[in-house]
Amino acid sequence: MSDTLERHEFGAEVGRLLDLVVHALYSEREIFLRELVANAADAVDRRRFEALTNPALTLAAEAKVRILPDKAARTLTIADSGIGMAKAELAQHLGTIARSGTLAFAKSLAEAPAAEKPSLIGQFGVGFYSAFMVADRVEVTSRRAGTEEAWTWASEGKGDYTLAPASREEPGTDIVLHMKADAEEFLEPFRLQTIIRKWADHITIPITVARDGKDEPANEGTALWRKPKSEVTEEQYAEFYRHVAHAFDQPWATLHWRAEGTLEFSALLFIPGMKPFQAVEGERESRVRLHVRRMFITDQAGLLPPWLRFVQGVVDTEDLPLNVSREMLQATPVLARIRKSVTNRVLSELRSRARDAEDYAKFWENFGAVLKEGVWEDAEHRKEVAALLRFRSSAVEGWTSLADYLARMKEGQEAIYILAGDDTAALARSPQLEGFRARGVEVLLLSDGIDAFWPERLDAFEGKPIRSVTKGSVDLSKIAGGPDQGEAADVAQLLARLQELLKDEVSEVRATDRLVDSAVVLAAPPYGPDLQMQRLLRRAGRAGGTGQPVLEVNPRHPLIRRLAETVATDTTLEETAGLLFDLARLQDGDVPRDPAAFARRVAAALAGEKG
């Protein structure tokens, strides 16, 4: 083994991240202890789990996290007997940030109210670096369980770190903080115990604080989910939620129950009260923790489907062996039954809370886009999830459900109409709505990314088909109403000529009665994706096979009437046809095929009109 000290530069974003954590979160310094203790407890959990299939990793004595303040040396040590880290892991976990989150972290930090800033540490996975809020220098000595080598990672948080060989009698990790002069309060045992009781009281691994040469217990270590609901206070629920979810808000919903009978388990789940800054968008797996007889097994058991991945918490069962492996978890019917039961319980809670529209709106604005994924991918629960969906509408303010829409349908209306796009405000102004609005027909406005997909799977709700207003030829003739726009021009010859001129751009040119103020609009063919899906496919470079759009023209519009009258003699119709098609694209939030050519055509048209 070489005795040479190795010096390394931090990964590209760590330096900036350290500056953000140290300065922007300065007033919340105590949070460093919660983060380091949580990491230590996780390391012990991981060692326990790996020991189930590798007995050589079994702990020789009861695991605990020890906190040792030393006023004379002005150091604070957090020691654990967990899985430990090898040299490469120290460099990987402490010298780089795996996901590029610093810019998002900085933006969220600038926008978050002061009371919410502590949550950014846990939600962005940068908890270890909070140590530099209170320490001038941090040393991490670690020995990976199952190996004999130990290494020390050390840094002053100024752009680089060192790695050097070390020794440690047992596997695990020691983190030594060399405290700043103004952080000596964190060397007082009573202050440390107060912080642990506040932030980590429900960590089930014992945590001790050294006082006068003795290790004193600092946490209860109670499996809160095993207590009767009547014995748990709202404050205890909130503290446990913050621990298990790495969050600092109040939960929107708390689900605590015990299933008994043929299948027995305890569960304590939370629906967050605020949207995390990253997790539910980037991570598609549920992280609800699975315990067997109180012992943590894994947070990768998929206890809830991906479309409920925002739910946090613990499920603890007696019906699995302690030595269950991840491979066994995928096959055991017990876990499948637990998954079904837990999923149904969460859906039941959402149905119950949805009766209060104002309260449910808070949940929907945080997690509605994720819940919609259930309609797309989960045939078993599709109808249940559909009833929980909420939408913006062309007819009413706020959020509305599909059931509310059905109650407001016009006489003669045969379908639930939707319009998908990138922005709700832009959709509300879309020409696609003109004929519907004129007849008082409501259209649901969909602006989440998943909205381009799920209607294809749901197809209908309560017997009424769900139809995109951009797809196929929408017949509104059976619905009374609409303004008197005068006689329609005879556009047969014009349609044929436009079809010829735009044959490379559109599949069909046809007249429509769903326009009022606009001359033209695009539609999708009756089979294949709607316009929003086509746009998404083009952006992804996968537009092949989507088919060409349909150009619909308004035979009552003055421009179309004039073109119909002069079609036989108009020498500029080719230019006009291109302009009409590009106008239709612009109205739908797309760009002209050739923006420069479009600009020239508009300028020429304006000049001709002026002359």
From TrEMBL:
Its main location: cytoplasm. It is found in: Cytoplasm. Residues 28-183 form the Histidine kinase/HSP90-like ATPase domain. Pfam families: HATPase_c_3, HSP90. Residues 536-611 are annotated as: C. Keywords: ATP-binding, Chaperone, Cytoplasm, Nucleotide-binding, Stress response. This is Chaperone protein HtpG. It comes from Paracraurococcus lichenis.
